[in-house]
Amino acid sequence: GLYFLLTKKTSLTVYLSFLFLSYFFSTFYSFYKLYPFLKIKNLRIRFSIFKKIIYYGFFNQLSSVAQQLNYRLNYFFIQKYLGLASLGRYDVATKISESSWIVSRSIAAVGLSVFSNKEKEETKFLALSLLKLALFLVFSFLLILLLIPNVFYTKYMFTADFYGIKSLIFSLFIGILSMAGTSVLSAFFSGVGMIYHNTISSLIGLFFLLISGLILIPSQGLLGAGFACSISYLSSFIYLLIVFSIKNKISFHLFLPNKKDLSLLKKTIQKSL
């Protein structure tokens, strides 16, 4: 960023160089902090643990690939059917909406550390509380985006070429909200060792994106792309929600906010700190 500001030059090569440099320093620092915990002299290869690494690694990577396609497959459809200009508008709306995931992913990260070290009976109630919190905060954030006048996006934030941003955010609303819930439930299933449900969830979302994207984008344009994305994310969330409810015998009334949620969240945050 400083390079671009100071030299007034833009270059993809320079951007990638600094990006990789930042990754290198992050990785180097991580190894530096981990070094005191490494005990090479006590290293033993256990086949049972190696099998688990392969098992969880396979499902985790498959889930990641499918989820990345869920995030960006629409881009290829838009470019093919609507052109690069439309893709630029859609990308901006997507980036603005997806910024709300900072909240839900932070909540999921806190939850994962707890889910991995607690009994399943304890974690299911925490997962419920974190799910409600994530959905409430992301819903509030998206609502604020929709209440902002359209002129703010076309005159102050971007240019007049980015008209219709609010309509696109509206079409993505359910999907972005659903993915916030998915983040928390995915962390739960990862923490309790049932990561394959995350893989199934991502594949279900990809299936619905392929079908809805090919139907809605050519006929409905950018709004169709937004709705296709929402259908994909919603289907993934519904699958995880159903499995979570069945596995933990969760009744409907427990999904409603209550005072116990606040006390449980407060205790969890205090322990995390």
Shape: globular
Distance between the termini: 32 Å
What fraction of the residues are assigned to beta strands by DSSP?
under 5%
| Helix content bin | over 70%
Q: Count the strands?
A: 0
Order of helices and strands: HHHHHHHHHH
Number of helices: 10
What would you call the structural class?
A: mainly alpha
Q: Which radius of gyration do the C-alpha atoms yield?
A: 21 Å
What is the averaged pLDDT score?
85
For the largest beta-sheet, the strand count, sense and barrel status come to: none
The low-confidence runs, each spanning 5 or more residues with pLDDT under 50, are none
Structure write-up:
The protein contains ten helices and no strands. The protein is mostly helical. Helix 3 crosses helix 9 and helix 5 packs parallel to helix 8. The longest helix is centred in the last third of the chain and has 53 residues. The protein is globular and about 60 Å long. The protein starts with a helix and ends with a helix. The mean pLDDT is 85.
Structural descriptors:
273 residues, globular
What's the short version?
By secondary structure, the protein is mainly alpha-helical.
How is the topology of this model organized?
Blueprint: H1 2-7, H2 12-34, H3 47-81, H4 84-98, H5 101-115, H6 120-147, H7 150-157, H8 165-191, H9 196-248, H10 259-272
Helix pairs in contact: 3-9, 4-8, 5-6, 5-8, 6-8, 6-10, 8-9
